[in-house]
């Protein structure tokens, strides 16, 4: 139970918000409030002051406790990870969250260049989510690493630029039907940027939470969309967009995730990515 309280404290400290912490941890806001109250009772200190209705300010005790809390959580994760090891087969477990374009375009190229011995020494687990969900997952230690294409920044996240990608306007260019990704995805961010630049207010659009489905619909001459040029079939019509739509692929990790095997993997990925630029 204490670990749950510490995880909740870290999320609230980093987001300065009960509601944002609840979203990160996939629990309710009242549960976050209960966890913080229980932790304050256990420690016999006040951890947060309210500045207005929405913003929380950590107390001096909270600032002192935060560094110890993150270290405690890291130590616990290392201790539990060690239980998966046997004397005959020591494999490193690394959990990865990948946004849809990085999962289908970038990540396979990187994994393909890892040596067989490296792959045999790892238990890689990959889940596909949108960029905002991956950020939340890295912050709450659900993922060790995140591969995203949205230029997200956060005080507790280290972001590494890996490779380039070109976005294009593709599909039935005469259609008034737009196929758009959901809020929180990297492509949604750039599509809203395009609408703003072109003074477009789409009257007809479909929200689709999967890039592969969008490309399939474009192949059937259904609507138009902004997508990665690397995901398109060879015969599909498209228009190259301005240089501001030349985006980067990123690798993100929590600044307090200092496990040597994670740092070594990041170095390997960055080295491989340089060959893909």
Automatic annotation (TrEMBL):
Superkingdom per UniProt: Bacteria
Keywords from the named record: DNA-binding, Transcription, Transcription regulation
Ranges for domain HTH lysR-type: 1-59
Any one GO MF annotation of this record: transcription cis-regulatory region binding
Gene3D superfamilies, per the entry: 3.40.190.290, Winged helix-like DNA-binding domain superfamily/Winged helix DNA-binding domain (1.10.10.10)
SUPFAM superfamilies: Periplasmic binding protein-like II, Winged helix' DNA-binding domain
Pfam families assigned to the protein according to its UniProt record, in alphabetical order: HTH_1, LysR_substrate
Family: Belongs to the LysR transcriptional regulatory family.
The name this protein goes by in its record: LysR family transcriptional regulator YeiE
Protein species of origin: Leuconostoc inhae
Classification lineage: Bacteria, Bacillati, Bacillota, Bacilli, Lactobacillales
């Amino acid at each position: 139970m204490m670990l749950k309280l510490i995880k909740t404290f870290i999320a609230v400290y980093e987001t300065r918000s009960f509601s944002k912490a609840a979203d990160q941890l996939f629990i309710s806001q009242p549960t976050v409030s209960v966890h913080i109250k229980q932790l304050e009772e256990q420690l016999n200190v006040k951890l947060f002051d309210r500045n207005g209705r929405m913003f929380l300010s950590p107390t001096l005790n909270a600032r002192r406790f935060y560094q110890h809390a993150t270290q405690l959580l890291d130590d616990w994760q290392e201790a539990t990870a060690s239980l998966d090891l046997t004397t005959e087969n020591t494999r490193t477990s690394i959990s990865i969250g990948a946004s849809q374009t990085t999962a289908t375009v970038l990540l396979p190229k990187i994994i393909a260049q890892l040596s067989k011995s490296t792959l045999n020494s790892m238990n890689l687990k990959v889940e596909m989510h949108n960029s905002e969900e991956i950020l939340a997952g890295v912050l709450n230690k659900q993922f060790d690493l995140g591969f995203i294409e949205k230029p997200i920044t956060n005080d507790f996240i280290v972001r590494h630029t890996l490779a380039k990608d070109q976005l294009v306007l593709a599909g039935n260019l005469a259609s008034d039907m737009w196929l758009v990704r959901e809020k929180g995805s990297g492509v949604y961010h750039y599509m809203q940027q395009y609408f703003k630049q072109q003074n477009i207010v789409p009257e007809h659009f479909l929200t689709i939470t999967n890039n592969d489905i969008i490309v399939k619909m474009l192949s059937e001459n259904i609507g138009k969309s902004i997508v990665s040029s690397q995901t398109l079939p060879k015969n599909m019509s498209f228009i190259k967009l301005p240089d501001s739509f030349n985006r980067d692929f990123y690798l993100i990790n929590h600044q307090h995730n200092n496990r040597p095997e994670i740092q070594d993997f990041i170095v390997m990925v960055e080295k491989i990515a340089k060959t893909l630029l």
